[in-house]
Amino acid sequence: MIWLVVLSLILAGIIFLLLEILVVPGATIVGLFGVGLVVAGIVVSFNHYGVAVGVMTLLGTLVVSLIAIAVALRSNTWKKAMHSSSLEGRVNVVETGKVVKGDEGLSITRLNPMGKALIGDEYYEVSSKDNLIPENKAVVVVKVEGNKIIVKLKEE
Hints:
Number of strands: 5
Distance between the termini: 87 Å
Shape: rod-shaped
Oligomer: single chain
Largest sheet: 5 strands, mixed, barrel
Strand content: 15-25%
Structural class: alpha+beta
Strand order of the largest sheet: 1-2-3-5-4
Radius of gyration: 30 Å
């Protein structure tokens, strides 16, 4: 009956280790719990069955763990469980001379201090010099630094 306890502890520990490696990386608690269960199973084996069986249990656990990790990493099961969407956002791509100081546009979103503005025919991520500019207000380009566009509220 003790062999069932040893086997259960070791298998549960290996499952927790696989979860740590493949599902919740960085959580450490799951991995530590898995290592604790594996060590507990091996210790019970040493205490109840002696050194010879304990060493065989240790070696068997190492082999089974390595095989389980190799099979889990090679299978497509984890690809199905993983979140596979990607971000489609982009950074401003401001062509030289397309947006220049003095250009006028319209704030599409509230600029607090960043938001979107329509300048010319293009939408850009812009920064407000005046901290808060409500949406649908006329803005003027104050400065263009590489891909960063700084605007202010247009004085009427």
